[in-house]
Every structure is written in structure tokens, then in C-alpha cells.
Amino acid sequence: MTGVSTATVERPETSAAAPFWDRQRRLGVGVVVIGLLAVVLFGALAPSETARFTLSDDAEGAAFSINGQLGAILFGVIALAAGGVLLAGLWRRFQTSMLSLGILAFVLSFLCWQVAGKFLPLVDTVSGTLELAVPLILGALAGVLGERSGVINVAIEGQFLMGAFFAALVGTMATSVWAGLFSAAVGGVIIAGILAVLAIRYLVDQTVVGIVLNLLALGVTGFLYERLMQPNAQSYNQPPKMPEWRIPGLADIPVVGPVLFDTNLLVWLALILVFVVHFALTRTRWGLRTRAVGEHPTAADTVGIRVRGLRYLNVLLGGLIAGAGGAYFTLVATGSFNKNMTAGAGFIALAALIFGRWTPFGALGAALFFGFAQKLATYLSAVGSPVPSQFLNMLPYLATIVAVAGLVGRVRAPAADGQPYVKS
Amino acid sequence: MTTEEKAAPPAEEKREDSFLSHFLHNLWAANTVTVTVLSIVLAMIIGAVLIIVSDENVLNTFSYFTARPSDALTASWDIVSNAYADLFKGAILDPAAISAAADGSGTWKQVFFPISETLTYAAPLVFTGLSVALAFRGGLFNIGGQGQAIMGTVLAGVAGFALPLPPVIHLIAALLAGAIGGALWGFVPGILKARTGAHEVIVCIMLNYTANLFLGWLILQKGVQQEGRSDAISETVKGSAQLPSFGGELRANLGIVLAVLATAGVAWLLNRSAFGFELRAVGANSHAARTAGISVAKTYTLLMVVAGALAGLGGATQVLGTAYALTPAVAGNIGFDGLLVALLGRNRPWGTLWAALLFGALRAGGNRMQSFSGISLELVTVLQALIVIFIAAPALVKAIFHLRAARAARLGTSIAKGW
After folding, report:
1. The listed CATH number (3.30.160, 1.10.3470, 3.90.550, 3.30.1380) that belongs to domain B119-364
2. Does A343 touch chain B (CB under 8 A)?
3. Partner-chain contact B416 A419, CB within 8 Å
4. Region at B228 (left for phi over 0; alpha for psi -120 to 50; beta for the rest)
5. ipTM of the predicted structure?
6. B314: exposed, middle or buried (C-beta count within 10 Å: 0-12, 13-18, 19+)?
7. Cα of A154 to nearest chain B Cα, Å
8. Would an 8 Å CB–CB cutoff place A198 in contact with chain B?
9. What is the pLDDT of residues B382-414, one digit of tens each?
């Protein structure tokens, strides 16, 4: 009942006309502030040395070079300008573009400061970003499927863990990556199945179930890890790693080539699924029904849609996808299972889902942004930057809080998200 | 108990049922007590299955099950009964220690050791459980107990080693610092919910991880990190700020006493104070409460501040009572465990206290089970999660055991709502 829509706000909006401090102007203030921060702080701190952005995995090859201090100030000024445009209320049609430009310029200014006197390998950064984003994309898509049909999925973390565990276990026993990937999906479905039965059939609070299932998955995988895998890693915890496939020709395109066309199946799977889920949600009968069930189940039931059946289907499909996302941790990232190895990634996926406003492409964008923040954090701690990596890692969480608080735009969950449907 | 008596329709009381028949009738009905007990039993059964399937020796005996079933059954029974016996001995009482103490070969301290451990683990859980339970009653789902507890450990820990204060005052100051840390972390979702309608669950989840990262950063800072150490551990809390304990093996400390006091305090706040009335009104129906002139926004904010302070105190007891130094995992899982404890305690203060004691006992027993029977401590996490799953889905337990419908229809702990 108390969804986001029933905000307890008592805003003093007396006139029906648009207030002066509308969304665009408030955004403008924010962008101007970060622009100022970039010019003054980053500009002052940046050493006047060359910052090289190389087009390869290392320091070699062609590169974009710019004086660090100059770059920090230049991009800061661009951010300021974008903020000024927003603040002045100009070009309202390009509001989103201006916002993106402002944020992008801010990030570039920050990078100029950090990279000054050093180099940043672009290919490595972009492919690292994408790889870190893969589980986030898959987890967020699982969330999209469940929540657009009205079932909150906080158990993404648990589905990841189960997926990662099953991938390692079955992958080792069958010595096959594909068996591992398949059983990872099954592992995700197990958790999703419990979630679905408890939430849809037994009407238990969905957030509670999600949190408890996370603990259950943590306990079960940790228990079996200590009992089976630790004493006998050879036969239970050494799955083969996912092979990288190189597509000749396409892989030779600079930057994009090595990132997109010399990589593993999971990356492609994640990117393709974003398009598939988007198309299915907006263009197919199933998608229309899913959205109807998520927004107004009673109305959907009236026209003959099986509300509960559809919710079961969507949650289980989500489990399939999130489980496959869990396989990333064992089959791609590390090559073996470890206790609580996902370490909160499921919750970052949840953040990406919310930050991406419950849409596939929004989730993709948010996941890439969060992946970039993580990648940058590792880069900065590797080059010994004064900016603590923990603060960059906080970025996804803080950004999501800002988003749900409506400080930058407004995110709105599907109307019936989290409300069990009881046929009366 | 009282609710069952109240719920019994007056017409039946006239028939003067004997106490025994009344008791037997209720025994197999889906009332709170029966469901709770059966949930624990179900969880133990599933735990037993996990123990059996994860033991290779026992599994080998199952390979010739049709030929000699007795082998498999005895092996299974042995491993499970040993594990659960150790769980009990580690949590409550070890008969061997009593006889050792009686004939002089052991000390009485060893007899009380299991109970002491149980109380030690239970104390922080009482606080975090109360935090969640209180917020629940006001219609808020405080999933941020973990973050609030972490901030509690941070501020209490820092106050514990940095402030130069005399003994008793130092302890009070450190506890207060912990409460303030948690309250700050509870204030954010509260004010955002009140002002912008941002769902507290989302904000809380995000703040949990933010607090975790903040702790990870803080420990490594100069002045906080223990001198001469390269790993992530802070200075040790001064003796003047430590919660007094029995000393030696008995780690049980003042924390559990404070926890009982806090339970009484929360019970009073909920049932006897004006704020408690307001928060229950808002929790029951925020629209009606607003119509009645209660400021919902103010209630939400204040409620989250109080809930945060409780969780922060939980973190403070952890660092001042047992850990004595900040580490990345100093708060353990007490925030999320507190959530389970509150659910198990049906969001009532005294129920939460009992649930926390049960969880503390499981944890204390789990330690012994791990070292004596070699069964991973993670089994305890599984048991705890399973118990709460069954508690949260009473209809499931009712269906499994074919329980009668309870007269007291108060089992729906679900507060079903969206983001």
C-alpha cells in the first residue's frame, strides 16, 4: 500500500504554474557545483604533467595525451557550461544530453587529474568495466523480469552465490564449462523457485524472503564449501575457465574490437539479453502482460491473464539469468569458488536495477557506470592515488540513494511491485 | 499465551473444557508457539540432511543401502546425533563438565562456559533485533541494521581508544557514541522517507554497504590503525571503556544486562509512551494516523533515529564487550541476524529477547560443533535462515503438518508492501 507513490511530502507548491526551481534548474545547480569542484579542486591539485590515455592494454601504442592540469580545468569548464545552460533554463529539449555532458566532463576532469604524469590503458579500462558489469547486468535483468511483473527480488545475491557454487561444483565434476554454466542457471532457479513459492503462493513479505534467502544461500554454499570443496578442491573446486573467443576481422577495430570481439560468451550473453528483454517487454504479448500484471494485477486478471502463473514464470526466468550471472564469478573471474565470494555484487545489481528505473537499457547503463567505478577504484589503488578506492566503491550505493530520493529526477517502481495477488 | 486465552470465544469457555483437553486441542493448531517449535524442528531436519549428504563416509554406506540398510542408518544417526549433541553442549550445558566439577577435576567456570558464550553472542542480537522490531511496528522495514551497527562499532570503538576519560564515564561515553553513530545512519533513511518518499528498504541496503566501505577505509587511517600493524585492525579499546565481564573464560559481559534493560525500555516505549502510540498508529494505517493529526513524517524520522540508535548500541556492545578493536568484520552479521531475530520474535520486545537468546545459543553451540564434530559453523546460518523462512510462512508449516487452523488468527507476520 505504501509504495513510493504515496510519498509523505507536503511540498509548498501553491501555484499550478511551473515553479521556478523546476527539475532542470535543480539539476543545473548540481552540475554547476560539480563543475566548480572540478575546476577549483581538480585543477589546483592536478600536476602539470602529461596524462596519456593509451589505446591498448599497456603503455604502448597510440595515445590521447593532454596536460593534466589543463585537461582538469578544461573539462571542469565544460561541466560548468553544461550546468549553466541547465540553470538558465535554456534548450529544454536537450536536458538529458546536457546532464550527461556535465557528468561526463566531470569524470574526464577527474581522470585528467589522476592520470597526469601517468598513463591509463583504455582497452584494459573498457574491457575491465564491461567484465565487471556482466554479472551486474545479468542480475539487474533478473530483477527487471521479476519486478516488472510485481515480485521484488532482493535475493539476487543469493542467486549469484548459488550460481557460482553450482558452476564450480558441476563444472569440475563434469570438467566442462558448459555443464557448469547450465547448472549455475539451475542453481539460480532453485533460489528463485523458493522465492516464488513463498512470495506468490504463501504471500510472505517479499523483501523478508529475499534477505532470508540470501542468508540461506550464504549458509548452504559456505557449509558445502567447507565440507566438500575445501578438503578436496581437486575433484570439486577446479572448474575449467570460460574460453575467450576472437572473431577475426572485427577484433582488429581499435578499442571496441578487443573489448567486444575478443572475449567470452558471458559478455555477449549479457549484452544480447539486454536487447532481448527490452524487445520482449515492449513489443511482445508476454511483455504487455508482464507489465500489466506488475502495474495492476486485478485489471490484468479481469481480462483473463493468469497473474500468478505469469509471476512464477518471470521469477524463474530471472533465476535462470541471475544464476548464469553467478557463473561469472567462478568460471570467468577467479576459477574457483570461495565462501561469500560475491561480496555484495547482488546488491549492486539491485542498485543498478533501481538506478536504471526498472528498464533493461537503464540497467545496462547503470551496470556499466557501476562497473566503471569499480574498475577505476582498482586502477587508482594500483597507481597509488590519494583518492581512497573505498569512496569510489561507495559511488553505486550513493548514486542510488540520490536517485530514489528524487534529488535527480524520480525513479518509480512498478505500481504493484511487492504486493502479492490474492484472487478475491 | 494471553492472546490465546483472549482469542478463545466466550461461548466455549462456558462449556468448562478441562485444561488438558484445551491444551491438547491447541497443541496441534497453527498457533504461534506450535508453529515456532515445528519451524525449529523442520530446520533441524533439513540441517541433518545437509550433514549427511556432505559426509563422504556416510554417503559410501548409502551406496549399499539395499543390501544392509542398518549401516547407512546407524552412520547417519551417529553423525547427526553427535553434531546436535555438541550443539546443545556448547550452548547450554555439558554433563561432562558438571561431573568433572563435582569430583574436583574441573572448575565450575567450565560448567557455566556454554551459557556465558550464549549470552555473549545474544547481547548484540537483542539490540539489533529490537531495532528491527520497533521499526516494523511503525510500518518501516529497517533492513539497515547492519550499517547502523557498523557505524555504532566505529564511533564506539574510536571513542573507546581515543578519549581520555575516567572508567565509568568513559564506558558511558563510548556507548553513547555508538548509539549516536547508529542514529545518524538511521536518520538518513528516515528523513528521506519522510521528505521525499524514498523507500527506506532501498536506502538502507545502500547505506549498509556504504558503512562497510567506510569502516574498511577508516581502519587503515593513521591514528586509527594499530601501531606497528600492517593489517586492518584498529587500536585496542581502553580498559576503562570495556564492558565489564566475569573474566577468564567467561566472556559474558554487562552487554546482556543492558540488552535486557533495553528490551524493557522498548516495551515501555511501544506500549506505554505517547510516541509508542503514535508509531503504532502510523504503522497500522499511516493515512488514518495523518487524519488523526499525527505527523507521519516526524514519526518516521524519529522512529528511524531510535531504531538506528538501538542497532548502534548493538554494534557498541560488540566492540566494547567482545572484539575490543575494529576490524573489517567486527560487526559480523549482527545486523542481518537482528532482522531474523525480530521476525522470530514476532516484532515484540520480549519475543525478540528470547529469539536472540536462541540465536546466541545456536551460534555458541555451533562453535563447539565445528571444533568437536567438524561440522562447519555455516550450518548455523542455514538453520537460522530456515527457521525464519518457516516462521514467515506459517501457512507452509500448517500445510506440512496438517495443523488445525488457529483460533488466534495473528500469524500473518507479512507486512506485504512494495518499494
Report:
1. 1.10.3470
2. no
3. yes
4. left
5. 0.85
6. buried
7. 10
8. yes
9. 999 999 999 888 888 888 888 877 654 444 444
